[in-house]
Amino acid sequence: MKKYFIQKKKSGYTIIETMIAISLFIVIVMAGMGALLNANLLHKKSQSMRSIIDNLNFVMEDMSKNLRTGYSYYCIIGSDTLANVNTTKSGQNCWGIAFEYQDGTADPNDQWVYYIGPDTSIPDSMAIWKSTAGPYTTSSFIKLTPNEVVIDAAKSSFSIIGAEPPPESPGPDQQPFVTIKLVGSITYNNVVSPFILQTSVSQRQIDI
């Protein structure tokens, strides 16, 4: 008896099916790559913004630490100039503050000064400035805030309570107290982010 074997015809994917599968694969890969690149870009932006905010926090910490250990605070307000800070004066909405550093002497020429003033490197913007060589040597002032930060001078200020020694201070037990308020905006990659920072500092040296 003869046996007959029927050979089945081998089949596979057609060219059209292969092209469709490859196209779908490319679309999925491209979508995944787009999401990955976008996440990486957002991470870089977040890191850069975090670096700027850390710089601002450092500025606040620098002012707080030196004011806390300093003494003889003077509120620079209104038409006051940096050359007239050789006494103690309390005040609200000061655009600057001068004080004696902890290791300094009672000499107005060696006072430390922080003030809010025009940014000489960026037109129509304000920055935080610092001098450690006395208010008379204005060329020694350095800018603390980065270029991405613009300070709103109308809303930012220093406030001092109890700078004068008793009995001129508000009360017999009034320890000198400074409040720092910074309001402004951070501009990075054409994105503007507003910020408000505020802290209060009490003089560490007993002055009652």
**Rg, Å, rounded:** 32 Å
Sequence of secondary-structure elements = HEEEEEEEEEE
**Helix run count:** 1
Number of strands: 10
Order of adjacent strands in the largest pleated sheet: 1-3-4-5-6
What can be said about the biggest beta sheet?
Answer: 5 strands, antiparallel
Q: Top keywords for this entry?
A:
208 residues, alpha+beta, five-stranded antiparallel beta sheet, 1 helix, 26% helix, elongated
Structure description:
The structure is a single chain. Helices cover 26% and strands 30% of the residues. The chain is of the alpha+beta class and 208 residues long. It has one domain (35-202). The strands form two sheets. The chain has a five-stranded antiparallel β-sheet with strand order 1-3-4-5-6, covered by helices on one side. Strands 2, 7, 8, 9 and 10 form a five-stranded antiparallel β-sheet that branches. The radius of gyration is 32 Å and the shape is elongated. The protein starts with 14 loop residues before the first helix and ends in a 6-residue tail after the last strand.
What's the structural blueprint in terms of helices and strands?
Elements: H1 15-69, E1 71-76, E2 91-94, E3 96-100, E4 112-118, E5 126-131, E6 142-143, E7 149-151, E8 157-161, E9 177-188, E10 191-202
Antiparallel strand pairs: 1-3, 2-8, 3-4, 4-5, 5-6, 7-9, 8-9, 9-10
